[in-house]
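Minutes, methods subgroup
Present: GH (chair), OT, SY

1. OT presented the first of two proteins processed in the latest run. Sequence and structure tokens recorded below as shown on screen.
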Amino acid sequence: MKCYLIASNYGTPDFLDYVFARAPDYGERIHYDDYEDEWVPGRDMKYEHGGPLSYGATVKGGRFTDKTRAEFQKIWCVSRPKAERTFDVIKPFGESLKAIPLFSERLKDAIEAVDPALFEFVRMERTWDDVHKTPIAGGPFYLANLLARRDCWDQDRTRIVPQKRGDGSYFNTISGSGRAVLRSRVKVALIWRDTLTKTVVCTDAFKGMVEAVGCKGWWFREIAVTDDR
């Protein structure tokens, strides 16, 4: 078994990012510090166990609240692709619950056929290619809320460092290039978010599944697996 971190294929036509916007116009993107009376995704979205910076959402995951799903339907996902082409993934995962990829319907269906409990999918009707002035090719697209959680790191081979936010709260990051997961904790997994660092990790089974669909916008970086059986 092999494990991977998921990053972006930056610099290639297959990579695509998006922003949340008030209208089908990149200039109408919604910023974190926008008006207090406006619903801002990164600031105001909620999961069953709390907001994107909360301990509960980090450790337990959870689906979006009804209000969050309803508010998502009111806003746009706007991108600036280099070429007019179809996409299966838009945006990678990040070490923040605020970074939510968009999946095409065929990628969503392939994942749900294997394990319908891995993700919550929210269909986004309003997607827009602001370069070619058309809906993003390859849709419909779905916000992919990763539900799976695991405590996976081999802490003898992975340096985890606490960091302090401006509000006084703490979060954990990985320092240095060394990263290793414990085989005993991930051997039956496909993809998950680590409960300590919020890092998204997947196995070769998940990598093979999404690449078979044609998921070219991601780059898979292999990491070590400690055989602790």
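2. SY then presented the second protein from the same run.
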Amino acid sequence: MDLAEAFSSLETAAFWVLFPLLRMLAVLLLALRKRAGWLVLLIEPVLSMVLMVAGGGFSFGVLLLPAIVAYGWWRWRKRAADGRPPVHAVTRRDGIAAAVFVALVLVFYGIEVVPMMVVHMTDVAAIVHTLLVNALTMLLYFGLARGVVEAWWLGIALALMGLGNVVVGRGSMGFDNPVWLSEGLAFTVLNALLHFYGWAKWRAASKETAVAPE
């Protein structure tokens, strides 16, 4: 096996196995309101940058998630009465912050992603889908960083979208192999269940705890 084949195998394994496992571990820790979840979430973009640089490329898009991780780590320094980061139902201020954040994310990804996809003759539906998934994913973690219970709904929606992609577009996505198809289905279903678990945990916590005095 030459270097190119080895790198391709490593990248494939990271994308289909390691990254989903790391993302789910981070989601579980965030569901339990463990601050360490942000550090686990940071591993994926760091590894992505390493793989991109090793392959001779780079994308500024991978810098957005580390920025949100830093924001979440900073916000979660506060503690509620139960000793964990406080959570709450969405407020008007959260809605305004989310709208501004989504606009910035769309501009951020649009400047880099859309021209590249147009050059490769990607259809409009694929461009919209890519921007939507990226925006919702970043909004999910932005909402979790702010302790918004309803942010978990975005994770559930993304998992269901992923499930639809696996079932409907399995051939074009490389899921024509039964092993990859089974793994894709297992990851997406487990991901949906983890986000539902996070919503249930945070919903209960928002009713039982209050912010402790600083």
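Chair's summary of item 2: The radius of gyration is 18 Å.
Next meeting: continue with the remaining queue.
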